[in-house]
Q: What sequence folds into this?
């Protein structure tokens, strides 16, 4: 991909000011947009979303003088740049003809380690949280749907609120699991 | 809820890549701006993962999930979590999990407990992720980059393969062996390093990854690749000292490889050393304590021959790093430098004694070796000592003096070695000298020595008086050899004074006299002086001829010191012509020669100056500064005012370029003061005038235009008093620029006309085409300023056009009018027009062009200025009109390069670039263009590369070639001239065709060149449409046969390989078949541009060059494109069809067959036939990419045929 030049300090400052006149708020919005761009590229199936998000932000920044006259805020003008960067990314991928191999099956030892870590992580939750997780993830297909409806009713939550709560707990568990596994790996070495 | 469902569905479809493009964009906009959408997306991601693992996705969704979703490492991790959850709840069941021992990391959990509601919990979770990852990254995680760098260090732990220090690489001793000897490298670690660093580069594409890969290639001794990656790293992170340090190291290693090559004539090594130093200094500006650039800077200085600077660097290094193993290497290098300098150089007496010993022993070899190393500006030291000692002897001693016998021996030795008769004649003079004569000679020789000392002190008026007295003594006693020597000394004095007329006068008689007497050394010295004078009269071609002759003679004479001087004189002459490539090659030769011959430091002032000026010309100011500093030290030691003044002057200019104005001004004032202390002398006034001129430049650069004008005026006044016009152009140009900045239009106008007169006078004096092109390439800014000033400031658009026209393709116009001859000199082949007067090649003004333009043509001429593009449109009916567009020339240049690259790569983004170009080049004048007329473009600068036919209309999406007949011409005047030539041919005529296709050629010329069966098909495909034809294919297409038939052909078509010679466009050639039985010369068989330039092709009305890149090989700012097509225009062909890039053989065959058939069978003109052929390719199903058809264009004049 042809990399855009880095924005000048002046261009970058202009971009921040365009996000928000308050510099701290502008910084926050910039970070937020950047992290969302990473998600966009991930959703589009790109590896290295961080780099691609940088590229989009760079492209917006170096054209800030022009864009500022046409768009109400920086987010609105990202679409075209996302498309271009994505297209260039795809072209490059085609050139590289990268075929990502399927990951090899993981050894039993590793799975055991994961299971042990998950147990430990579940213990870090409060009792009601553990219960929610347990009930939310149990069952298959139809059974699971029924479970969740009942759970929502028991907790006096809408289905969507339950989804959000479960998702947040899952995120917490995920973070815990990653940490635990790295610790386990390190102590093994 | 409905909204939620909708959002959920969109998120799901989005993640599975099922949304239409428009919905996808809308969703992404929401994702970027709405928190809810982002949250929803994350939840749906989890749900999709669960469904995938539970095998609940539909087959289509399953496939999309694996192809599209399951691609990032982050998501793979999430899947592992989901799998773990799934396994857990399958095995554990509904009961509570058993308590398990806690680990320290669970202490972070306390943070999570702070939040109990879902939202803070989410925040806490996120925080934990961040903290967790941070800990993991800090303590345990090793990225590919880290792994690669560790492996790289391991790989070279035993021994390092390059001399330069690489950042963050542990010490290992340097292996000095060359070639393919096996090196103790840990190949496993090296492979690991390569794998990880390539992976890191692919994943990260940031400065760190490029930097690491650059280091890898540097250690692999692949400096070119290393430089490529390190350049990228610099572009990504412009303030990283380590990257600059390693880039400097890579350039050093590259330069070393170049220095190792046998051919020392290439100056690239010095350029790379300069670039290396520039980067190392940048590194040290950012981080003065970084050890690697300090270490490498010392190495670069060593290789540059800057001994003092290298020693200072090593000492500076050892202060910062006194104890490491690197320090041991530094000490070793420092010691070698000290030892090298303390080597004993014999003084004059020791040398003389050694000579006498050799003479007495009859050792001719030793005697000659001492003699040839004893040449000095005042003659030969051994010869002079012999004469002086002879004269000091008692005149009445009777027997022949030993000194005189030795002088006779030396004279005979010199005759045997070089056939130079000077010393033998001198010995004869002294042999026959009476005692009275000897007395006169003693006085004369003493005065001669005093005169030479005075010249060194820049007291030339006094010196000349002494020389005149000496001259009359030598004349009176009949001492012809020394009479010539004193004449030479006077000529030298006048040359540097400057009193050019008197210098010329002396040399005009001295040079033929030396030739007739076979005084070769004196002849070479005289030629050097004449070259100096010629260059000051701006007669560069003559100066270069004399310089080359002098060099040749000094080589024959094995004169060490003057041979070095001759190299440097040529370097300086080529530098003035802006030809840094050749200039640097002479500096390189001088440097290699000085090293090989052990020339003492004190004699290296000229070498340092020449190197510094070349680096300055390449804008490598930091690197130039070190040479200048060392040159100034040598100048101060010499106590010669002229070279001290010059040294300060160049130092000042370099500081100015680095925008250190205070020190720059101080240096220039020192330069001026050297002259002022000798203000009564012409030489002193010359120094003051020079320094004033440079002060003018400095003031202008600093924005003080009033002081600049004053300094330029003082310079001009002083130069005028000296009748020395060499720098008038520079001073008037400076004044013009200063007035321009002051908005003083009246005075700017006045200066501009003076500048242009001087500009023109230079053109007449520079004869060789390469010299002209390089010189005017640099000076094109004068033309651009004139156009800009006339157009925008004075509002005189016609005058602006005239300036545009006057600067364009001037050499080509001269060659076309006067004819060309190819000359061969020390710098290779060159081209020059036959002698003539300026009025032989008149330049048409805008109104004349409008009057003489063919009715069927509309002329579109571009002027690419720094920040604007001017477009003139001229027709016979409407006269001249113009438009200007605000666009930077740099931007347009990049756009053209991008478009051409995209076309050549069949890139899908090419249409966007072609539309952008259309916006700049066509859209502003679109309404003025008439579809019934041919558009003749006269491009400027980078626009010469534009395939105009491929420009895409913004509104209709049609190529320009679909709507207009197109052609290009190097200038409007050439268009008129060539059109008139074409007009002399009847439109319908029984044309005689010469068609050359697929000549057999020796494959070893270039194994990559393929056989061209399509080229044979091509010529056979249309040849029958011509009533008279000669088709030469395969081994019948020999140079002899082609040349024989070309002169009588009306239409010539070449379908063959065209091989570009990057060193000389005159040697670029169409590959042809060797004569039968002449395989010995098969590699050289071909039709070269140099031969075509000299041919008379007045019977040929059209040439088609259906080969690769026949239209443009090189492009000069003023002169425009240089390519094979140009040689045919000079040979008298009015219309040429040529290509802009390497073309596709098969498609070209199609295009050309259609083109010729349209010409012959549909009676179309050349432009119409090409348009027709191109349109046919565009109209094919799926349309041919412009790559296949847009490269070809009609060049020269308009024709009805």
A:
């Amino acid at each position: 991909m042809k990399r855009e030049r880095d924005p000048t300090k002046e261009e970058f400052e202009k971009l921040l000011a365009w996000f928000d006149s308050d510099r701290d708020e502008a910084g926050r919005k910039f970070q937020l947009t950047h992290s969302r761009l990473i998600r966009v590229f991930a959703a589009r199936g790109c590896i290295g979303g961080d780099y691609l998000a940088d590229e989009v932000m760079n492209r917006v920044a170096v054209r800030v003088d022009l864009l500022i006259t046409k768009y109400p805020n920086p987010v609105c003008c990202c679409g075209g740049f996302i498309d271009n960067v994505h297209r260039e990314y795809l072209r490059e991928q085609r050139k590289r003809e990268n075929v990502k191999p399927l990951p090899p099956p993981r050894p039993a030892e590793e799975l055991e380690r994961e299971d042990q870590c998950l147990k430990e992580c579940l213990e870090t939750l409060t009792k009601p949280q553990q219960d929610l997780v347990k009930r939310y993830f149990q069952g298959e297909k139809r059974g699971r749907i029924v479970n969740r409806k009942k759970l929502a009713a028991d907790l006096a939550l809408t289905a969507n609120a339950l989804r959000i709560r479960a998702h947040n707990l899952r995120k917490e568990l995920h973070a815990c699991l990653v940490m635990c596994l790295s610790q386990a790996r390190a102590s093994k070495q | 809820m409905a909204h939620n469902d909708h959002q959920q569905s969109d998120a799901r479809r989005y993640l599975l890549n099922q949304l239409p493009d428009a919905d996808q964009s809308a969703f992404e906009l929401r994702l970027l701006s709405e928190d809810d959408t982002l949250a929803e997306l994350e939840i749906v991601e989890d749900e999709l993962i669960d469904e995938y693992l539970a095998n609940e996705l539909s087959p289509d969704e399953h496939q999309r999930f694996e192809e599209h979703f399951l691609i990032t490492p982050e998501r793979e991790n999430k899947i592992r979590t989901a799998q773990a959850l799934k396994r857990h709840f399958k095995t554990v069941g509904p009961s509570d999990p058993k308590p398990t021992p806690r680990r320290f990391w669970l202490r972070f959990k306390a943070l999570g407990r702070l939040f109990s509601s879902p939202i803070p919990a989410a925040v806490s979770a996120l925080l934990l992720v961040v903290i967790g990852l941070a800990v993991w990254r800090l303590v345990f995680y090793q990225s590919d980059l880290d792994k690669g760098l560790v492996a790289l260090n391991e790989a070279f732990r035993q021994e390092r393969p390059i001399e330069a220090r690489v950042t963050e690489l542990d010490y290992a001793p340097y292996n000095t062996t060359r070639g393919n000897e096996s090196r103790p490298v840990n190949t496993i670690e090296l492979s690991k390093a390569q794998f990880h660093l390539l992976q890191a580069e692919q994943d990260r594409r940031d400065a760190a990854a490029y930097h690491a890969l650059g280091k890898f290639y540097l250690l692999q001794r692949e400096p070119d690749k290393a430089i490529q990656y390190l350049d990228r790293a610099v572009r990504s992170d412009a303030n990283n000292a380590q990257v600059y340090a390693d880039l400097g190291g890579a350039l050093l290693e590259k330069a070393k490889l170049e220095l190792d090559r046998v051919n020392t004539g290439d100056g690239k090594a010095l350029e790379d050393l300069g670039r290396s130093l520039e980067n190392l200094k940048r590194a040290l500006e950012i981080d003065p304590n970084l050890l690697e650039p300090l270490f490498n800077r010392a190495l670069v200085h060593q290789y540059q021959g800057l001994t003092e600077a290298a020693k200072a660097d090593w000492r500076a290094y050892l202060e910062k790093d006194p104890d490491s193993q690197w320090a041991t290497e530094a000490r070793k290098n420092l010691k070698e430098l000290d030892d090298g300098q303390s080597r004993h150089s014999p003084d004059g007496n020791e040398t003389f004694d050694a000579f006498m010993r050799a003479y007495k022993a009859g050792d001719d070899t030793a005697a000659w070796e001492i003699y040839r190393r004893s040449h000095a500006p005042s003659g030969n030291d051994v010869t002079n000592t012999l004469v002086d000692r002879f004269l000091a002897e008692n005149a009445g001693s009777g027997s022949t003096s030993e000194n005189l016998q030795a002088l006779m021996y030396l004279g005979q030795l010199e005759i045997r070695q070089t056939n130079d008769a000077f010393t033998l004649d001198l010995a004869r003079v002294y042999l026959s000298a009476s005692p009275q004569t000897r007395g006169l000679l003693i006085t004369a020789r003493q005065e001669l020595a005093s005169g030479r000392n005075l010249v060194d002190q820049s007291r030339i008026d006094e010196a000349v008086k002494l020389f005149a007295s000496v001259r009359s003594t030598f004349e009176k006693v009949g001492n012809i050899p020394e009479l010539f020597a004193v004449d030479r000394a006077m000529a030298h004095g006048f040359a540097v004074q400057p009193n050019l007329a008197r210098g010329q006068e002396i040399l005009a008689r001295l040079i033929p006299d030396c030739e007739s007497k076979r005084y070769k050394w004196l002849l070479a010295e005289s030629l050097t002086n004449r070259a100096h004078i010629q260059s000051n009269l701006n007669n560069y071609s003559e100066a270069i001829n004399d310089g080359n002759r002098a060099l040749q003679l000094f080589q024959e004479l094995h004169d060490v010191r003057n041979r070095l001087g001759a190299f440097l004189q040529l370097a300086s002459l080529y530098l003035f012509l802006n030809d840094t490539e050749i200039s640097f090659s002479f500096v390189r030769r001088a440097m290699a020669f000085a090293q090989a011959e052990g020339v003492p430091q004190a004699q290296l002032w000229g070498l340092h100056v020449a190197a510094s000026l070349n680096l300055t010309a390449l804008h490598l100011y930091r690197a130039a500064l070190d040479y200048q500093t060392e040159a100034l030290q040598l100048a101060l030691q010499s106590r010669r005012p002229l070279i001290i003044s010059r040294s300060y002057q160049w130092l000042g200019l370099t500081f100015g370029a680095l925008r250190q104005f205070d020190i720059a001004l101080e240096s220039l004032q020192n330069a001026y003061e050297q002259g002022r202390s000798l203000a009564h002398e012409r030489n002193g006034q010359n120094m003051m005038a020079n320094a004033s001129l440079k002060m003018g430049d400095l003031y202008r650069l600093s924005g003080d235009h009033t002081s600049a004008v004053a300094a330029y005026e003082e310079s001009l006044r002083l130069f005028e008093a000296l009748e020395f016009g060499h720098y008038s152009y520079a001073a008037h140009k400076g004044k013009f620029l200063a007035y321009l900045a002051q908005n003083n239009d009246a005075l700017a106008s006045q200066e501009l006309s003076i500048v242009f007169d001087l500009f023109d006078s230079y053109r007449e004096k520079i004869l060789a085409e390469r010299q002209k092109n390089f010189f005017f390439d640099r000076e094109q800014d004068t033309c651009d300023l004139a156009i800009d000033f006339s157009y925008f400031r004075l509002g005189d658009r016609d005058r602006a056009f005239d300036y545009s026209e006057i600067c364009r393709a001037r050499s080509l116009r001269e060659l076309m009018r006067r004819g060309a001859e190819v000359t061969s000199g020390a710098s290779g082949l060159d081209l020059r027009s036959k002698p003539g007067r300026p009025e032989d090649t008149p330049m048409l003004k805008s109104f004349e062009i409008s009057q003489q333009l063919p009715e069927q043509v509309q002329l579109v001429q571009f002027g690419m200025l720094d920040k604007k593009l001017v477009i003139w449109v001229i027709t016979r009916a409407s006269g001249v009109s113009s438009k200007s567009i605000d666009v930077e020339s740099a931007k347009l240049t990049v756009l053209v390069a991008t478009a051409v690259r995209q076309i050549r790569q069949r890139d899908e983004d090419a249409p966007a670039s072609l539309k952008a170009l259309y916006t700049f080049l066509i859209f502003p004048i679109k309404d003025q263009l008439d579809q019934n007329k041919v558009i003749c473009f006269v491009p400027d600068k980078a626009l010469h590369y534009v395939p105009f036919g491929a420009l895409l209309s913004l509104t209709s999406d049609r190529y320009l070639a679909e709507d207009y007949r197109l052609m290009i011409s190097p200038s409007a005047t050439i268009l008129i001239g060539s059109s008139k030539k074409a007009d002399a041919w009847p439109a319908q005529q029984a044309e005689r065709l010469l068609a050359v296709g697929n000549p057999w050629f020796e494959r070893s010329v270039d194994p990559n060149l393929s056989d061209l069966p399509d080229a044979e098909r091509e010529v056979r495909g249309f040849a029958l449409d011509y009533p008279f034809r000669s088709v030469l294919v395969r081994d019948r297409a020999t140079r002899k046969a082609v040349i024989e038939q070309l002169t009588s052909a009306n239409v010539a078509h070449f379908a063959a390989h065209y091989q570009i010679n990057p060193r000389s466009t005159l040697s670029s050639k169409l590959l042809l078949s060797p004569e039968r039985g002449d395989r010995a010369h098969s590699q050289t068989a071909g039709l070269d541009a140099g031969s075509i330039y000299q041919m008379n092709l007045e019977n040929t009305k059209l040439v088609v060059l259906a080969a690769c890149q026949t239209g443009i090989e090189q492009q000069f700012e003023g002169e425009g494109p240089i390519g094979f097509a140009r040689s045919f225009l000079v040979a008298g062909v009015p219309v040429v069809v040529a290509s802009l890039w390497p073309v596709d053989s098969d498609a070209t065959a199609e295009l050309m067959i259609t083109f010729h058939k349209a010409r012959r069978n549909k009676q179309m003109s050349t432009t119409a036939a090409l348009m027709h052929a191109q349109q046919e390719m565009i109209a094919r199903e799926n349309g041919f990419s412009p790559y296949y058809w847009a490269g070809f264009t009609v060049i020269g004049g308009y024709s009805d045929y």
